[in-house]
Specification:
binds FE2/S2 (inorganic) cluster; 4-stranded mixed beta sheet; 242 residues; globular
């Protein structure tokens, strides 16, 4: 089956997967403890519950999985070139942190919390105003492609450099999701680095989260049993990016 259609028929839901403990201390540095937080180490899965390996990812397609909470979306993107390394970034208050770079073969795979640091736009099951613009395309937010764009107020972020702000009203990078690849080539998520907006998001979108998850507690549940990765246009019925 062709890979794109394989992902297209993804059904919603997660499958049981064993969790391995993983110590991340010392792997990344942030000069402010608030900018780095470990969560459950969670295996990424395709829509059949198979461990997600790099071969299945198409370059420059925006994929989404929920992490570290059941309702918090993240982007997974395999770039068309290796990501940069050791990028120094700052949150809105000036605290610095170091983004180490991409993972996988050629270090092209990156992941970010898909909650816009400006006013928290994010993909939901109905629509998304956020997504990656391939290199050869352009958007209203930025002069070049190869960027993540939030069409709500036209912020653009550079996925090659830790989602640094390139344009628009956002004042800080998107938070990054720390990934690693095990000896079998399977992707895992284990932490969040940068200015995550999870608690503002839970507060601001309570009615929406109740609608989609029935119960706010379910929306705030930490993911622990595997995170299913879907293309953005499967995750959200409508994708609006310009
Ligand atoms: S919410 Fe993303 S640019 Fe305003």
């Amino acid at each position: 089956m062709e890979r794109r259609s394989f992902f297209k028929i993804c059904a919603k839901g997660t499958l049981l997967v064993a969790i391995s403990p993983f110590l991340i201390e010392g792997y990344l540095k942030a000069d402010d403890g608030r900018l780095f937080k470990s969560f459950n180490r969670v295996k990424l899965l395709d829509c059949y519950g198979n461990p997600l390996k790099e071969e299945i990812l198409q370059e420059e397609v925006t994929y989404v999985f929920n992490y570290p909470y059941a309702s918090t979306p993240c982007f997974l993107i395999k770039l068309s070139e290796p990501a940069a390394k050791e990028i120094k970034l700052r949150d809105e208050e000036g605290s610095e942190y170091i983004w180490k770079g991409g993972v996988g073969k050629d270090k092209k795979v990156v992941a970010y919390s898909a909650i816009c640091p400006h006013q928290l736009a994010h993909p939901n099951p109905n629509e998304s105003f956020l997504g990656y613009i391939p290199k050869e395309k352009k958007s209203m937010a930025y002069k070049e492609g190869g960027v993540i764009v939030c069409a709500s107020h036209l912020s653009a972020f550079d996925p090659k450099t830790g989602a640094k702000v390139l344009a628009g009203p956002a004042k800080e990078p998107m938070a990054s999701i720390i990934l690693d690849v095990d000896e079998e080539g399977v992707f895992w998520a284990s932490a969040v680095l940068g200015p995550a907006k999870f608690f503002d998001y839970f507060k601001s979108f309570k009615p929406e989260l109740k609608e989609f998850y029935k119960n706010i507690r379910k929306a705030k549940k930490l993911v622990s049993l595997g995170a299913v990765v879907k293309p953005l246009d499967v995750y959200s019925k409508e994708v609006v990016i310009y």
